[in-house]
Amino acid sequence: MKPRIVIPKVAPEAYQAMLSLEKYIASTSLNPVHKELIKIRASQVNGCAYCINMHTADARKLGVSEQRIYLLSAWREADIYTQEEKAILALTEEVTLISHHVSEETYANAAQYFDEKSLAEIIMMIITINAWNRIGIATGMRAV
């Protein structure tokens, strides 16, 4: 692959705006494991190897088992995720694949487990990792 732009160098203001979103996400009350499950699953759906590599390593550091990481792409058929995690993962997939919209069923299911503030934080987390995925893919970042 030919070298591509490095956004922090050519558009530092835009990159700083992304880092501000990341700072907000870090300040939320979201469970750190939930954050990593969102990041991994969105990155899988988007096909961002760089982010999958980074966030699976981060999840392991938090104590997430290999089994939970490996089964994440098939979470609906795995009984190792809590109902809250399944609600988050469904919402992650629908927000990531937004052209299909977020169904009332998925939103209502998530709202059973999370209050409005937590839902806002979850949605912002999903939006942020999707933006990072798009930056990584568009600029040709590679998993090492």
Automatic annotation (TrEMBL):
Signal peptide: none annotated. GO terms for molecular function: peroxiredoxin activity. Residues 12-94 form the Carboxymuconolactone decarboxylase-like domain. Coiled coil: none annotated. It comes from the Bacteria. Pfam families: CMD. PANTHER family: 4-CARBOXYMUCONOLACTONE DECARBOXYLASE FAMILY PROTEIN (AFU_ORTHOLOGUE AFUA_6G11590), CYTOPLASMIC PROTEIN. This is AhpD family alkylhydroperoxidase.
